[in-house]
Design goal:
28% of the residues lie in helices and 29% in strands. It contains 11 helices and 17 strands. Helix 4 (148-161) packs across helix 10 (294-305). The relative contact order is 0.15. Bound molecules: zinc ion (2 copies).
């Protein structure tokens, strides 16, 4: 029997490598030889025991090479470089049917290894339906292609903001998500102002194209943004930091008809105070962004294929599959960007 290795979390901080039978794809299935898989928050939560769902084959930010295809697959062929969409949607609920599949009522995780729960990107191979396989250009770096999923989340957020040429856009927080927002806002033609408390991250922001950087621990960021915009406030504010108090200042940074997007989830979810009369009179829009839609995923794979987004600075380490324990230890470090596992 031909087998391959799958890394599986069996308990808090306990990773086992299990052998799974390698089957041939049929119908619309695609067998992928995984090249790279990043460790995201979902995997870290299961690893730390914040989410206790064992056994769990983690890894939903993956890219690889098509090994074999079923007889009904049309979009890819063996040898193609691909990224995979592993956190998908049910296809049956109200939101999936009206084109808002990122709001799917079932949080749906693809099962890529028979009988094991979890997206399963941290493995040597995976079997996945062709509709969730996105072909990339032959010269794409697969280490970078693995970041298609987090980039797609940010593409969704930026799409919602509908940035105009020459707009003033504030990005609060320069973690990996803030870094993607900065680059996407630049590609959209905005003047980008990055706010952070960490100087090293502000330097990264500058390298990625931010026009102005503000260390919000050293000055009143709201006043500074008003000053930079002749007192108006920004056209768009993205909050990628999970603190309610920062979310409240994000609203104050926005000008009339400004849009505020709460990108990150908030833990703890402390309420903030908003003046309804101010919203009435300024016509500000306060919204959120969660998960990517299919078209966002497609856009993300094109942006990476065409080298329009630079992810080289957002990868803290590349770790071989055999040292997966080390990869998790590094990934849970708060200062790290993405850790990529070479499968
Ligand atoms: Zn992710
Ligand atoms: Zn659905």
């Amino acid at each position: 029997m031909d087998t391959y290795k799958v890394s599986t979390l069996f308990d808090v901080k306990k990773i086992n490598i299990i052998e799974v039978e390698k089957k041939q794809p049929s119908g619309k299935q695609v067998l992928i030889k995984v090249d790279s898989c990043a460790i995201c928050t979902l995997e870290q939560r299961v690893y730390n025991g914040v989410m206790k769902r064992y056994p769990f084959a983690g890894g939903h930010e993956a890219a690889g090479i098509v090994e074999a295809i079923g007889n009904q697959v049309k979009s890819v062929k063996p040898g193609d470089k691909v990224a995979v969409r592993l956190l998908n949607s049910c296809g049956e609920c109200y939101y999936c049917r009206n084109g808002n599949e990122n709001q799917c009522v079932v949080s749906f995780i693809a099962e890529t290894h028979e009988g094991i729960g979890g997206p399963g990107g941290l493995s040597e191979y995976m079997m996945i339906d062709a509709e969730n396989v996105y072909k990339m250009e032959p010269d794409v770096n697969l280490t970078y292609a693995a970041l298609s999923e987090p980039l797609a989340c940010c593409v969704h957020s930026v799409r919602k903001a509908n940035i105009g040429l020459g707009d003033d856009v504030v990005v609060i927080g320069v973690g990996i998500m803030g870094a993607f927002h900065i680059q996407l806002a630049k590609l959209s033609g905005a003047r980008v102002i990055a706010c952070e408390v960490d100087n090293a991250r502000l330097e990264t922001a500058q390298k990625l194209g931010a026009d102005i950087v503000i260390n919000s621990s050293e000055m009143d960021a709201v006043a500074k943004i008003k000053e930079l915009t002749e007192g108006r406030g920004a056209d768009v504010v993205f909050c990628t930091v999970a603190l309610s108090q920062i979310a409240e200042s994000a609203v104050h940074m926005a000008g009339k008809i400004g849009k505020v997007i709460f990108y990150s989830s908030f833990h703890p979810d402390n309420p903030i105070s908003i003046s309804p009369n101010k919203i009435h009179s300024t016509e500000q829009i306060i919204t959120g962004s969660v998960n990517p839609q299919r078209k966002d995923f497609l856009t993300a794979t094109r942006l990476l294929s065409y080298h329009l987004i630079d992810v080289s600075m957002l990868i803290s380490d590349i770790v071989p599959f055999a040292e997966i324990d080390r990869a998790f230890i590094e990934a849970v470090e708060p200062s790290s960007y993405r850790i990529i596992v070479k499968c």
